[in-house]
Amino acid sequence: MQDAVDRLTPLGVMVLALLREGDMHPYEMMRLMRARRDDRLVAITNGTMYHTVGRLERAGLLAEVGVDREGNRPERTTYTVTDAGYSAVIEWVRRELPRVDHPAEFRIALAEAHNLARDEVVSLLRTRRDARASVKSEIATGLRTAAAKGVPTQYLLELEREESLLAADLEWLDRLIRRLEDEEFPWGALAPTTRYLEQRKAARL
User: Fold this and answer.
1) Residues 145 and 85 occupy one common structural domain
2) CATH no. for residue 46?
3) DSSP secondary structure code for residue 113 in this structure
4) Among 28-32, 96-100, 192-196, where is mean pLDDT lowest?
5) Per the database record, which ranges form the Transcription regulator PadR N-terminal domain (predicted)?
6) Long-range contacts (CB closer than 8 Å, 24 or more residues apart) made by 64-73
7) Contact at 8 Å (CB) between 79 and 67?
8) Are residues 80 and 18 in the same domain?
9) Residue 67: predicted pLDDT
10) pLDDT digits (tens, 9 = 90+) for 149-167
11) Which tens digit of pLDDT belongs to each residue from 172-182?
C-alpha cells in the first residue's frame, strides 16, 4: 500500500476521490473536474487524464467496469475505484495534510480532507499549525537579529513578506480548526445537491 501511496500524483488522488462519487469514464471525469474548477489545482488535459487513469488501473487502484458507445462517438470505458484505491486516497491525504514542505500537495489534501474523520483532520491541522508557527517564530527572530546588526531593510523584504504570509495562514488555520471543532459544521459525505446532479448530467453529454 505504501508504494502505491508514494506513487500517487495530485491528479491521481483527485481521480480516485472523484470515483467515490460514482463510476465514470475519463471524459466525464474531465468535464466534471473542470465544472468544479479543479483545474485551479492540477493541470487537466486529455493526455494527463488518460495517462493517469492507465497508471491507476495498472496499480490496481481503479478497475474497468464497462465499455459504452453512444451513436458515432468513440467507445468510452467506465471505471470504478477499488478498495485499494480508496485506502490510498485516505493515506495520501493523511500524509500530506500536516506537511509544510509540499504546498501544492497540501491544496489537494485540503480539498480532499473531507474523506477523513473530523477529529483526525483537526489533529493533523494542529500539527501543521504548530510547524508553521515554529517557522514564523524563526523568521521573526532572524528579522530582529538582522535589525539589531543594522542590516538595511531592503535586504529583508522577502523575509518580511514571508512572515506576513505565515501570520495570515496561521490566522486562517485557527479559524478553520475552530469551525471543525463545532459539531454544527457539516463534515464528511453529504447528500448530492441539485447543482452536483446537474454537473454530473452535463459531464455525461
Assistant:
1) no
2) 1.10.10.10
3) G
4) 192-196
5) 15-87
6) 65/23, 66/23, 68/25
7) no
8) yes
9) 83
10) 999 999 999 999 999 999 9
11) 999 999 999 99
Same domain for 103 and 199? yes
Q: Which of 73, 70, 55, 66 is nearest to 22 (CA)?
A: 66
Taking the CB of residue 81, how many other CB atoms lie within 10 A of it?
24
Domain count within the chain? 2
Q: What is the DSSP pairing of strand 62-68 with strand 76-81? A: antiparallel
Cα–Cα distance for residue pair 55/62, rounded to 1 Å: 9
pTM (2 d.p.): 0.84
Using one digit for the tens of pLDDT, what is the confidence trace for 125-144? 999 999 999 999 999 999 99
What is the phi/psi pair of residue 137, to 5°?
-65, -40
| Burial (CB count within 10 angstroms: exposed 0-12, middle 13-18, buried 19+), residue 204 | middle
